[in-house]
Amino acid sequence: MKALVLDEIGGEYRMADVDIDVPIGREVLVDVKASGLCHSDLTASALGGWPVPAILGHEISGVVAAVGPDARGFTVGDHVVASLQSHCERCPACVRDDINMCEKPGFVARPDGERPRLSLGGIPVTAVAQLGGFAEQVLVHENNLVRIDRPIPHELACILGCGVLAGAGAVLNAAEVPSGATVAVYGCGGLGLAAIQAAVIAGASSIVAVDVSDEKLAYAERFGATERVDSLATDPVATIHELTGGGADFVFDFVGRPEVTQQAYASVGRAGELGVVGINRPGATLEIGIGPDFIWNQVRIRPIFNGSTNFRRDIPRFVELFAEGRFKLDELVSRTVTLAEVNDAYARMAGSVGRTVVTFP
Ligand SMILES: [Zn+2]
Ligand SMILES: [Zn+2]
């Protein structure tokens, strides 16, 4: 099958004919129909951390082509979306349904001693995050898949595999924003836009979008933000305090820069909550005054990993919301390309709004 292979860390992807094995055990072979270009694949390609050659791509929608003898949840022809939430379903975290905290995510890998799932000229090929979606097919453990019973276009379904869930999950699962709350969102990229939509679903009374890009702020309004703040032109902290009458009940930071996290913290009102989703650089710090106001204000800080999602519960939920017209996915996909165009598409990604998706015939 054709796949984009990364031969060296920091290099470009190269089209290659990769051998893919047949499913064993609980594995499922999927014909990939759409594969989203997430920014984190670009970061991963530059940083590495796994053996090359490797195949990246982790936002996958496709159709089951074959199932292993022990796979329980899937049959040929099922519409599926993949997730990098690898989990074992047996550890204490999995048993309490908190698969984000799984202690044995390596459970989904093919056991040592078996043939590799993927190979190129006899050399094993790494499927990054056990997925490897920049390819015509993926061979994955069934625990990395969810079935979509109400099919929607693959190029929309695939983006549910990663950023959309993390952004919306921060609002709905982690913070559990109640109806009537005031919300502010720092950073209106894909995650921020999903969070804004989730805040609408939660019934937030006002949603303040903060960004430095006019284009992203315009998107934010289309997705339900009630106010927009260009943080280059206006002080976002003072503006949020003014708009919300003393600070927002829930503030989400999707940016991952210490100065923004600082502003986001200062934007929270009394007894409110800061949700930190954007990942800051190692060693970054947040400075918090702990004088009398610290106790008086009772502001909580919640770091949120992956939107506290469980992809098997949440992906079908967002498919339903999309089908009911309550969650926009089509507006999040700005462009479709072929597998051969991925390098170019990544080069043009900086600053663009919306997802680029690879589609397959
Ligand atoms: Zn991603
Ligand atoms: Zn587990």
Q: Can you tag this structure with a few keywords?
A:
361 residues; alpha/beta; Rossmann fold; 2 domains; seven-stranded mixed sheet; six-stranded parallel sheet; globular; binds zinc ion
Describe the structure.
- The longest helix has 13 residues, at 190-202.
- Helix content is 26%, strand content 27%.
- It folds into 2 domains: 2-161 and 328-359, Quinone Oxidoreductase, Chain A, domain 1 (Alpha-Beta Complex); 167-305, Rossmann fold, CATH 3.40.50.
- Strands 4, 6, 7, 11, 12, 19 and 20 form a 7-stranded mixed beta sheet that branches. It has a 6-stranded parallel beta sheet with strand order 15-14-13-16-17-18, sandwiched between helices. The chain has a 3-stranded antiparallel beta sheet with strand order 3-8-9, with no helix packed on it.
- α4 (163-174) runs parallel beside α5 (190-202).
- The protein is of the alpha/beta class and 361 residues long.
- It has 11 helices and 20 strands.
- The mean pLDDT is 95.
- The two termini are 13 Å apart.
- The protein is globular.
- It has helices spanning 39-47, 92-95, 154-157, 163-174, 190-202, 214-222, 236-244, 258-266, 292-297, 311-323, 342-347; strands spanning 2-6, 13-17, 19-20, 27-36, 54-55, 59-67, 79-82, 118-120, 123-124, 126-127, 137-141, 145-147, 182-186, 206-211, 227-230, 248-253, 268-276, 300-303, 333-337, 355-359.
- Residues 87-88, 90-91, 93-94, 102-104 line the site of one zinc ion.
- One zinc ion (ZN) binds next to α2.
